[in-house]
Amino acid sequence: MSLIKNILPGEGSLWVAWLRSYMFNTNDFWYVVVKTNMSWSLKQILKLRTEASSILPSNSKKVCDIWNGIRVKNPKVHWHSLLWFPLLIPKHSLIAWMIFLDRLPTKERLHRMGVDNECHCIFCGAGIETRNHLFFECPVATALWFAIFSLNGLRFRHLSWDSLYDWDVATWKGISLLTSIMKISSNALIYIIWKERNKRFFQCHASTVEAMFSTIKEIVGFQLRAVVNASTVD
Ligand SMILES: [Zn+2]
Q: What is the arithmetic mean of pLDDT over 126-136?
């Protein structure tokens, strides 16, 4: 159980959502066969089914019940609503979650962990690649934030990563269309920046800021159309 607690840090609900959506959507958790191509962590979870079943009522063997039975409940972080909302894109929220916790392996973080690497930003070459630089201070990030805010009729006038997200938390409440668009856009923006950063780093292939912005717009449009189509079918 301690292994699961370590694997599922913080809120943990994304893991539960991911497991239920992608691994157990058609198969009962208790009868899924462990396969060699499964991740190590998932194999560990499945190995603990027998032990988990002993701490749960026999009629409630659901993944969420297991999770609620073993997890340590911590207070919600104030920015949780920016990541977990009805129209979220799981992989975007996952990256955003790691960014909020400053857990992505930026060059500066790797350096702090003892890696002997150079730390300059791969986009501008001037700043040190910290979380705040990569996703806010870098001219590439700033241009994308300006573009997204402008597209939605808003002025971007934030001076720091913290002030931006404090403002987001205070502003983007409820389920209005603009709120949903800004949450999807913000998470897509940081996901695209991280993806582009890795592409430049590992594949030596660079996209323009305009192309990155177009991708973000496509993501938002696709997500909104998917909801409209789903509601139409219903
Ligand atoms: Zn930079």
A: 96
